[in-house]
Every structure is written in C-alpha cells, then in structure tokens.
Design a protein that fits this description.
The protein is α/β, with parallel strands linked by helices. It has 21 helices and 13 strands. β9 and β10 form a beta hairpin.
C-alpha cells in the first residue's frame, strides 16, 4: 500500500467489510477532490474484481454525455475486465445483467468487489439508471455472500438522497456509509512531511486557510518552494493548476453549475451569511422548493453551512465555508494581473493581512473540535454559534465569530487572532472584551459563567491587559 495519510478508521472499516462473510453495499461520499477514489484504490488494492467510473455529464467541448455514451463506456469496462461475450447494452437493465453474468462466470467463491466510481454521473435524465441499479442489488447482489459493492461520487446530495437516505427501492440497503473529510491540520502536516516538503506550522496553517485540507490541491505543492511561491505556482503562473479549478469543480458536481456558482458568489458578500429569504431576494429568485434543493446540495457538498446565530430569532443563516471558494472569490476571480509573483509581492498588503485574520476565524469555526480539545472539553456537549449585537447611534455593537456554549455552564467567548508572534492585548481590546462579556451576560441564564478565550497562533504576551482572557489556545495546542 502506498503511503496514505490519515484515513485509518476508514481503511479499517473497508477491510472489515471485505473480510466479512456476507454481502456488503458501501457508499462513500465527500467533497470533490477529497480523495475518495484514492482511499478505495489503496484500501482494496489488488482486490477489486470490476471497476467503472461514470463519464462526466459534460465533456471538455460542452457535449453532454447521455445514456448512449454512458452505456458504451460501461460495456468497454466490462470488456477490459475480461468479459468475453456480449454486445453493447441498450439500457441499464441490460448493462447490469451483463455485469451479473460476468461476475457469475468468474466466481470462484472468493470475495468479489465491484467499485462504481462517480455513480451519480451515470444517472443521466430519463436513463432508468436507478431502477436498474436497484434491481441489480435487490434481486441479485444482496443475495451473494461474497459480493461487496462500493460506490462513491462527489455529488453528495445525490448519494444522500438516492442511497443513504433513500425512501425508495434502496431504503436501508447500504451496510456502511463513509463521509470522507478534508485533511485536518495534523494530517496536512503529515502529508507534507511524507512528501519531503518543509513548511512551518504557521505556513501549513495558511495552506489550510487557502485550500481547506483538500489532498488533491495539496498534492500540487512543490518541494523546495515557500508557501508564497507555491501559491503563486497554483494560481498565477503560466501553468497555474488551480486558476480554472472553480469552474471545473462546479461543472463536475452539479447539472446547473452556473446557478450554484451564483449562489456561492453571493454568499461571499456577507461573512455572517444570509437568511434563506434574504438570499433569494438578493439573487432575484423565488424561495421555492427548487431553491431549497440547491441550498441542500451545496450543504451536502460541504460548500456552505446552515446555522443559527446565538440569541437571534428562529431564522437560520446560510454561510459559505469552503476555504478554496472564499480565497478564489477574493483574490483570483476578476483578478486580471499577469504578474506570476502576485502573492509573493502582495503577501503583506492590507488586503491579504485582513484576509488572514478572517480566514483564521473561519478555520477555527470549521475545526472547532481542535479548539475544544485544546480547552480540554472534547467530552463536553456544546452548542457552536456566532454572536452579533447590532449597534446604533447610542450604543456600540458587539460580535464574535465563535461562541462555545457548554453543558457544564461555561460559555467560551472566543477572540481569534492570527499573528506571526505572540499577541499583545491593548487597552482598546481590553475594553472591547469587557463590553462583549457584559452584553453576552444579559442574554444568558444566571447559571452560566463567561470565559473570554483567546485563540491565536503563538500565544499571549503578558502585560497589564492580558488578564482579561481566562484561557489561551495556541496553534501548537490545537495540533498536538
């Protein structure tokens, strides 16, 4: 097995299922480029009996790959895996019948693994794919004790709706579903070490803030280059690998990529996000069932998150959380610079410095489990939210981007600071934090105690104002 970073639990799960003595149906999902195919290839290396990957719904020339193309591609996969006889099927029912025949003909009693990659792509309009796939599993596959079917795809909403949460023919049929997440900070650090790439924790954190721990993107980092040089290579060089990734990404996942990109770009305009009603009005669309379906698909694909800010009404907000999309919208989209050293030359500009501070806040919110572990409260039930009090002509507002309300009657009011050295609190920060505590106390039952908490890269410098913080969490503590 090649060196595979992290994924220990997922590998153990797949190995256990492979070694069982009953039929297995496994669904793997996760953000596009997160490494689903690589996981299956490595965990089940040398054990896959038949593998097939659906054709992208749209090819590089804009032509749609519909039923005829998908069936021909499936037939070619059967031939490549040793099927001797048969003609190209005219329907998915015929295609899966050919697969059944092939598996029966080569069955010697040992485990047979069928790996169907990018399964959602095969379900083209009016193709009858789901009916045929349900028949394949329900009438044949589930009765074969030595058969293991593994499916995956980047269209997470399709996987969830049609397989994992299906109310149709595949209801409760998946024996196991695996959500593959992006690399954590520690896994990103291990990935670079395995590649011989030397970066400081400070710069590894920045890669998380730009690329979100997506292994496919991290794989483009080059040994011997700094973080800034690598970012230039990925986005602004003559052969920038990720310059057009945003468009490719949405085209590969969604059948309506332009509509989905428009929603995402609109969400970049407010850090807090939008209510469903406000978002629909801003986009100029109806807040109907179709709009709700699009939002669910973006949530399922890990681009956006739905949450409820602390102390507000019942309205839920939709917020963009994908680091790559946020970085792209801020620095790559509409950037006509022909400078191949754009990032290296602008890394200390006010725009980039401001982005780092906000991106660090997003990192902490996204990976709040690391913050909780550093605080020693991993086992404590918590509610995670943002908090905002609007100001007016008389009273100044208050806000925080991370509030951890705990069942042990503590609320961690987190202030997040991305610094290249120890953070030094000043009188202004001291007064702001006192006001936040006072404002928050009015919103909480009397049994709660508020702990002002600093989450920062390299710690807190002791001075006359540092005592305002009850707890300090450093990058090193989060990544142990």
């Amino acid at each position: 097995m090649a060196t595979i970073i992290g994924r220990k639990q997922e590998i153990q799960e797949l190995e256990s299922l492979y070694n069982s003595d009953e039929s297995q149906f496994v669904a793997i999902y996760g953000r596009c480029r997160v490494g689903k195919t690589f996981l299956v290839d490595e965990a089940l290396k040398g054990k896959i009996t038949f593998r097939h990957a659906g054709l992208s719904p749209v090819d590089e020339n804009g032509k749609k790959n519909l039923l005829k193309d998908q069936l021909k591609h499936f037939f070619n996969s059967l031939r490549l895996h040793g099927m001797k006889k048969g003609r190209c099927p005219s329907s998915w029912l015929d295609a899966f019948y050919l697969l059944e025949q092939h598996l029966q003909n080569i069955d010697n009693g040992t485990r047979q693994v069928v790996f169907l990659d990018e399964l959602p792509w095969m379900d083209t309009p009016k193709s009858g794919f789901m009916t045929a796939f349900e028949a394949f599993w329900n009438s044949w596959g589930c009765h074969r004790d030595n058969l293991m079917v593994v499916v995956c795809g980047s269209a997470n909403s399709w996987i969830l709706d049609n397989l994992i949460n299906s109310h149709g023919g595949l209801y409760d049929r998946t024996k196991c579903d695996i959500k593959l997440n992006p690399f954590t900070f520690k896994e990103t650090e291990d990935f670079f070490k395995a590649k011989g790439i030397l970066l400081s924790q400070y710069d590894i954190l920045q890669t998380q803030m730009v690329l979100g721990g997506i292994p496919y993107y991290l794989g483009y980092f080059k040994k011997g280059y700094s973080f800034a040089q690598n970012v230039d290579r990925l986005f602004w060089s003559d052969e920038a690998k990720l310059k057009d990734e945003f468009d490719r990404l949405f085209s590969s996942i969604f059948s309506n990529p332009e509509e989905m990109k428009r929603i995402v770009m609109t969400l970049t305009k407010r850090r807090k996000g939008f209510t469903r009603k406000d978002l629909a009005e801003t986009l100029g669309v109806n807040a109907d069932g179709s709009f709700t379906k699009k939002l669910k698909a973006l949530i399922a694909s890990d681009f956006i998150q739905k949450y409820k800010p602390f102390g507000e009404s019942a309205d839920e907000y939709y917020k963009l959380i994908d680091p790559f999309c946020i970085f792209y919208s801020k620095f790559v989209k509409d950037n006509d610079s022909q400078n191949p050293y754009f990032w290296s030359e602008n890394q200390f500009s006010q725009k980039v410095v401001s982005w780092r501070g906000l991106a660090f806040e997003d990192f902490c919110f996204r990976q709040v489990d690391l913050v909780k572990r550093a605080l020693g409260i991993s086992g404590v039930s918590t509610e995670i939210s943002t908090w905002n009090v609007k100001g007016d002509d008389i009273k100044e507002g208050s806000q925080t981007d991370l509030l951890i309300k705990r069942k042990d009657n503590i609320v961690n009011l987190c202030e997040m600071k991305f610094y290249s050295e120890e953070y030094s609190a000043d009188k202004t920060e001291y007064r702001k934090m006192l006001k936040r505590v006072e404002d928050l106390r009015q919103k909480l039952p009397a049994k709660f105690t508020i702990h002002p908490t600093l989450v920062t890269t390299f710690g807190l410098k002791h001075n006359e104002y540092s005592g305002i913080f009850q707890k300090v969490v450093t990058l090193e503590e989060m990544t142990l």
